[in-house]
Amino acid sequence: MKKIFIFALAILFAQSVAAQKLDRSQKPVAGPAPALTFVDPVIYKLKNGITILVVENHKLPKVSATYSIDAGPITEGSKAGVLSLMGQMLNEGTTSKTKVQFDKAVDQMGAEVNASASGAGVNALTRYFEPAFLLMADAVRNPAFLQVSFDKLKSQTITSLRSNERNAKAVSGRVVNALLYGTDHPMGEFATEKTINDLSLNDVKDAYTKYITPSRGYLTFVGDIKPEVAKALAEKAFSDWKGTSLTFPVLSNVSNPAKTEIDVIDLPNAVQSEITVSNLINLPLNNPDYHAVLLANQILGGGADAKLFRNLREKHGFTYGAYSSTSSGRFQTAFSATASVRNEKVDSAVVEFLKEINVMRTEKVSAEDLQNAKNLYNGSFALGLENPARMAGFASNILINNLPKDFYRTYLQKINAVTREDILRVSKKYFSYDQSRVIIVGKQEQFLPGLKKLNYPVNLFDKFALPLKTSIN
């Protein structure tokens, strides 16, 4: 009898599944935008200028803290690379502990402590957080700055620079910003073997004195800690710290080229070329266009469902992936579309890049593409709120960028209010077609003849962004 009953249940279940008639050719319909809940951090201010933000979360017995210095872009000039070296030196021991002793103390607690030219961070179990936090503060405030450590890091930096000279991605990463901004701009300058060789330990110490300071500092605590405990810890570690007062830099805007040009850097060993199509933009977070630009970029090149990927990879097979990005902030940033492309297909890929950018500027996107982009932001934004550190990041962004207090509470409302007309408008404004730089790093003998046929000015540069000829047309 029992077997008959089980058999009957199995038949009923099979009939129920068959009756559902699933249509797997259609994507599931996205649900409504999720309702968001925020926990505002507790904020304190130390007399020396440090702003403290505390996000309390007791789900796990651990705490993290981050100290960041809002110095803005720094022009290093002939000492390019000194800030990076200085940041590395902060992890080489303190005046009271050798590097071995310091690292051993961190390891014994199972903690993580690191420092850089822009600040420091610590992550530890609650029971060990205070001593780990004080170690972080010691690294920031009392670096040893030993000559032997400086010589070691300097040598490692030079070795790394040399090894990257035949790497197309590394060369592209250097020259793209140099050509966009100019090598005399803090966003365009870069370290070379010469600038690193010319640095001394005193240069590192001078950079530390000038830029590692409580001025414009933000100290963020996230996790299993009470706000009053975090404040007491911050005062214990930093209240008597004095340092240079930072002046936030003012930078002039850099112009895009008068008309689109192709800039080529020859790398004869490259089997693939790095293509970047880019133009400078101004997009602070409080810009009314901000949310529309995010969606426009997602539709153009935000992932595997975007126009660039579908064209350059799926349709033409030029690359493993083609993407675009837009940066935002208080200074001039860039829109860029990028891909690693077979040398012999570079000219064809450039045509397709510019074609897709132009389509964004001249035709409305489909309602489906826009809704898919919105669905992605609705889901990913809500999912990101599961990380309590996001709340601290939101709060510091509001303070640093002078944003409305409800900027993130209304984030999805503004995303979902964007129209197809908005996408067309911001694409015309921020995705340049007529005033772009097409920067290519690769084996030029395989693609230069094809580029000449595209009727754009073609300029040659060396691996350090220095012009070789004004034009080869």
What are the SSEs and their pairings?
Layout: H1 2-19, E1 42-45, E2 51-56, E3 62-69, H2 82-89, H3 99-108, E4 112-116, E5 119-125, H4 126-141, H5 147-163, H6 168-181, H7 193-197, H8 201-211, E6 217-223, H9 227-238, E7 261-266, E8 272-281, H10 290-301, H11 307-315, E9 322-326, E10 333-342, H12 346-362, H13 367-384, H14 389-401, H15 411-417, H16 420-430, E11 437-442, H17 448-452, E12 458-461, E13 467-469
Helix pairs in contact: 2-8, 10-13, 10-16, 11-12, 12-16
Describe the structure.
The protein is an alpha+beta fold and 473 residues long. Helix content is 43%, strand content 17%. The chain has helices at residues 2-19, 82-89, 99-108, 126-141, 147-163, 168-181, 193-197, 201-211, 227-238, 290-301, 307-315, 346-362, 367-384, 389-401, 411-417, 420-430, 448-452; strands at residues 42-45, 51-56, 62-69, 112-116, 119-125, 217-223, 261-266, 272-281, 322-326, 333-342, 437-442, 458-461, 467-469. The strands form two sheets. It has a seven-stranded mixed β-sheet with strand order 9-10-8-11-7-12-13, sandwiched between helices. Strand 9 (322-326) and strand 10 (333-342) form a beta hairpin. Helix 10 (290-301) packs across helix 16 (420-430), helix 11 packs antiparallel against helix 12 (346-362) and helix 12 crosses helix 16 (420-430). The longest helix is centred in the N-terminal third of the chain and has 18 residues, at 2-19. The radius of gyration is 27 Å and the shape is globular. The protein starts with a helix and ends with a strand. The relative contact order is 0.15. The model has no long low-confidence stretch (mean pLDDT 93).
